[in-house]
Amino acid sequence: EVQLLESGGGLVQPGGSLRLSCAASGFTFRNYAMSWVRQAPGKGLEWVSAISGGGANTYYADSVKGRFTVSRDNSKNTLYLQMNSLRAEDTAVYYCARDPIAVAEYFDYWGQGTLVAVSS
Amino acid sequence: SDELTQPPSVSVSPGQTARITCSGDAFPKRYAYWYQQKPGQAPVLVIYKDSERRSGIPERFSGSSSGTTVTLTISGVQAEDEADYYCQSKDSAGTYVFGTGTKVTVL
């Protein structure tokens, strides 16, 4: 059974940093591109960042480019999102999601999400 | 434009048909995907590649495409179908883009 479990969310002050993790199980992690998708309170889904299966290729939404860094450790079956220079508008539930084909196709499995709140 | 536009809300009585549209320049050259999201839960893939129903999804869910508009149809709506629905495709930069989302209310 495919499982994705996010962790690392919490309350952080504007300008602060946070690292999210997504532990994957039930599939061969290194074979799949992975993404982070966020949802601000009461708002729609916004794709944030993606990384190829081997980790060589990374992609970012303009809203986070230069502030967020996606990475993965295939030996630990874990996806990461390092978030720096956080802003109030980064407040959201962050989901990790698996792309069954390649980067920029679609998502067949999602985690339950972790809440990031940026506030002073 | 890379935007995918959906109606904010659709209301339907039980047993009737709900149609949710998604319009954008990504179509028809890109595939459309549809997700269902219930309150407090993660999104769930419902339809992939315009009209393929994911395993385990009830047959009352179907997808179609016509020109620059794709449509998710729920035939014989049930109370459990009340949720937010999002379309998704690939944008001109080759990354993911989501639709604006549609709240389906079962009257």
Topology:
The complex is a heterodimer of chains A (120) and B (107).
Chain A: E1 3-7, E2 10-12, E3 18-25, E4 33-39, E5 45-51, E6 58-60, E7 68-73, E8 78-83, E9 92-99, E10 109-110, E11 114-118
Parallel strand pairs in A: 2-11
Antiparallel strand pairs in A: 1-3, 3-8, 4-5, 4-9, 5-6, 7-8, 9-10, 9-11
Chain B: E1 9-12, E2 18-23, E3 33-37, E4 44-48, E5 52-53, E6 61-66, E7 69-74, E8 83-90, E9 96-98, E10 102-106
How would you characterize the overall build of this protein?
The complex is a heterodimer of chains A (120) and B (107). Chain A is built from no helices and eleven strands. Chain A is mainly β and 120 residues long. Chain A starts with a strand and ends with a strand. In chain A, strands 2, 4, 5, 6, 9, 10 and 11 form a seven-stranded mixed beta sheet that branches. Chain A is globular and about 40 Å long. In chain A, a hairpin with a 6-residue loop joins β5 (45-51) and β6. Chain B has 107 residues and is mostly beta strands. In chain B, the strands form two sheets. In chain B, strands 1, 3, 4, 5, 8, 9 and 10 form a seven-stranded mixed beta sheet that branches. A three-stranded antiparallel beta sheet of chain B has the order 2-7-6, with no helix packed on it. In chain B, 0% of the residues lie in helices and 47% in strands. Chain B has no helices and ten strands. The chains are: A mainly beta (120), B mainly beta (107). The interface between A and B is medium-sized, with 20 and 22 residues.
